[in-house]
Amino acid sequence: MLPPPDLCSILRIPFLILLLSLPAKASSFNLTLPNQHPYPEAVAHEVQRKVNASLSRRELLSTTVHDQAQCLTGNPIDDCWKCDPNWANNRQRLADCAIGFGQAAMGGKGGQIYMVTDSSDHDAANPTPGTLRHAVIQDEPLWIIFAANMQIKLKHELIVNSFKTIDGRGANVEITGGGCITLQYVSNIIIHNIHIYDCVPSGNTNIRSSPTHVGWRGKSDGDGISIFSSRNLWIDHCALSHCTDGLIDAIMGSTAITISNSFFTHHNEVMLLGHDDKYLPDSGMQVTIAFNHFGLGLVQRMPRCRRGYIHVVNNDFTEWKMYAIGGSANPTINSQGNRYIAPPDPDAKEVTKRVETDEKDWSDWNWRTDGDMMVNGAFFVPSGEGLSAQYARASSVEPKSSGLIDQLTLNSGVLGGPRDNSVSISYGGGSTTGDSANGHGGSGSAPGGDGDFFGMIFGSGAPPPPPPPTASALVFLALLIILISCMITNQGALL
């Protein structure tokens, strides 16, 4: 007579059935971020609706109210606040003017005004009151402004706490030096009207991240703005150039981001969105890139995307040396109403680049061009479902002609100050020989590179807990635990 089967033997069959029923590709798991918008096409639709409404309002007022029409550009962000001659008396109105995926960024709305009066940065661990570093580490919401024109030369990364607005309107504010700006595990940040350039690696030192916490930081990459596991962010009317690594890098599950009205020049690897092809949480990354000028001396990555949904709308691409928009690991790219001006190089006319991926693998990626203007032989290679149901909501409002790009990007960059550093510096961001499918941005906080990797979580900026596991996931985990115990008991004889 055969011995009765033990528990391990009984569980082998349902375990194998469950294992075989799992999706063949990990990317088909429903991996979403807690702050991911469930209908990204609706957000794209709303951006176009606001642009169309602003342009229509400008056309109407140009025939009725001449003075107001003078200030209107049709850019919905600028038209929201810039026409008020007394805007400086109500600075926080700016927080209501964002569009796209980062439109919920509150910044320091509702908080006190903090005026930066001291441009120094002597001690990153013990910042002086009145400095920008002292302002950005506070726990409470703050709307940070500047008493005068100033150049802030950072010694190390400027680590920003949650619920802060850095508002450079009314002054010419330059940030340069070590770091530069780091947004790590934070939310609700607005960075407006700041000139960021010549950012270089620094670190291996203690840096204060809040009034009660100082942590050891490894060496940073030298990004202009480094975004790491953060959400609800809005970068508007900034000018960025000449940094060692990226001008803006967003990685490690960051989402709900808008980058608008900014001026990018003199750089190799401009903007990275996504940590690594294998980092599945970046599937929830959602970024709006609107009304920006990509200009002189740029090479590639405007942006370079991994996973996620990227809406590129009404930007002016006037120069690239390799490509404008690139990606890997199946990102969705919705390009609407942009102007792409190709370089003279006959081998660099293509706007798009699927980075180190065979056509058979990227042919079903959803990359779409809608209403874009192609100049000087530029061409965009679309793929995927095109005008199928995925884009039906986004395309139900036709984008305004890209011929209006001059008008929409008229004031891109810092307002009332220089948009570009005229100093001639070799391109940052490494070799210009090509992009890498597996390279990723670091931000000085990669495992092994920073002794305080998980310690620098700032108060209200701590990432939200992950969603609870599904019932099938719990069953799978329970079976797996029991079977591992069996393997140990039976010296690995499981199957």
Automatic annotation (TrEMBL):
Pathway: Glycan metabolism; pectin degradation; 2-dehydro-3-deoxy-D-gluconate from pectin: step 2/5. SMART domains: Amb_all. Its EC number is 4.2.2.2. One of its GO terms (molecular function) is pectate lyase activity. GO terms for biological process: pectin catabolic process. Residues 149-346 form the Pectate lyase domain. Its cofactor is Ca(2+). Binds 1 Ca(2+) ion. Required for its activity. This is Pectate lyase. It comes from Coffea arabica (Arabian coffee).
